[in-house]
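Can anyone check this?
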Amino acid sequence: MISAIILAAGEASRMGKLKQLLPWEDSTILGTVIKNIQESRLEGQIRVVLGAESDRIKRELSDYNCQFLTNPDYTRGMFSSVMTGIQNLPETTTGLLFMLADQPLVTTGIYNKLINYFKEEEPLLLVPSYKKRRGHPLIISAELIPEIHKLGEDGDPEGGLRSLLDKYEDDIEYYNVDKEGVIIDLDYYEDYQKYYSDHHS
């Protein structure tokens, strides 16, 4: 069973406002990410790791059937949210799908393709690739969960989960997609405005 961990704890300092709750489609950026995963073939839990303004986000997204976890150390960086997200996983977990909160352009269809491939091929690491650029979501085999815990024992590793990808570079399987949404995150308000108008026109 694959569970999803959506990393949504950041303060969005580069955006200048709480980007998780900016409007997108008939919801918000984070709400759309959750909805696209909910509508996929994912069987496990959807865990949303919050930090900055967590109470406000929980209130606004209370209709979504997912598990909200709060990372008290979110200011230390994204890996602390990874560690929050992997606590007390069900024993039936076979894989973890890691997703960023600011990538609403990743469609349910892309999630389904990755989930199906992971179930059939059982790679250690599965990463979508657009024109040879790594994107999200990435799916990590449950076999590597002890490795993530080990990384977390030394505080926050340089590069976070990327350091795991570097260590197991030869074991990564890349799934080529023809949609650039897997590499687009909305870090700056200009990015948001551009992709919002492209997507909603």
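Reply from J.R.: I decoded it. The chain has a mean pLDDT of 92.
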